[in-house]
Amino acid sequence: MALDIDRVIAWLASALQAPQITDAWVYGSYAQGVPTANDVDVLVCYRSGWAAGAATWRREVEALFALEFTIPLHAIFLSADEIKNESSFIKMLLANSHQVPIANLGT
User: Fold this and answer.
1) Is 74 helix (H, G, I), strand (E, B) or coil?
2) How far is the CA of 40 from the CAs of 17, 33, 54, 57, 106, in angstroms?
3) Residue among 2, 11, 7 nearest 75 (CA)
């Protein structure tokens, strides 16, 4: 199913509004425009100390995304510290990504 990237990013920007979420990126085959992509991958950065909340939020966002778009969302939620510790891997992962605008930036 071909999805409009702008629609997906707008949906994620709305769905990921939480004071603890600071950044998000759509990456992988869908972000690269592969026409046969059968899922959407998103990496979400949250403030350290919110692991339990992040796990719950991830499950909810994935379920709502599947209802809205009828394809799976694979969300990876990492703390700011985890992203810092894995910076070279994260840079490679996000090389061809689309950043999701997170309006609240933890305010």
Assistant:
1) strand
2) 18, 11, 18, 17, 24
3) 11
Separation of alpha carbons 12 and 28, rounded Å: 16
pTM above 0.85, yes or no: yes
Q: Which domains does the chain have, with CATH numbers?
A: 19-98 (3.30.460)
Tens digit of pLDDT at every position of the chain (107 positions): 468 999 999 999 999 999 999 999 999 999 999 988 999 999 999 999 999 999 999 999 999 999 999 899 999 999 999 999 998 889 898 888 999 998 754 44
Collapse the DSSP code of 80 into the 3-class scheme (helix H, G, I; strand E, B; otherwise coil) and give the result: helix
Q: How does DSSP assign 9-70, residue by residue?
A: HHHHHHHT--TTEEEEEEESTTTTT-TT--SEEEEEEE-TT-HHHHHHHHHHHHHHHHHHHS
